[in-house]
Amino acid sequence: MLPCNRGALAGCVLLWLLPILIIASSDQTTGGEKAAWICAIIFLS
Q: Which position has the higher pLDDT, 4 or 25?
């Protein structure tokens, strides 16, 4: 098993979550459109 640096792992998780958090807190999209963008980020990454 590869050695894991917890700081690097936390940074990668934060970078992956950042666009989801930005979309979730945005006022420019609402309801179904917001859900569609979040699903797209999750399933396409």
A: 25
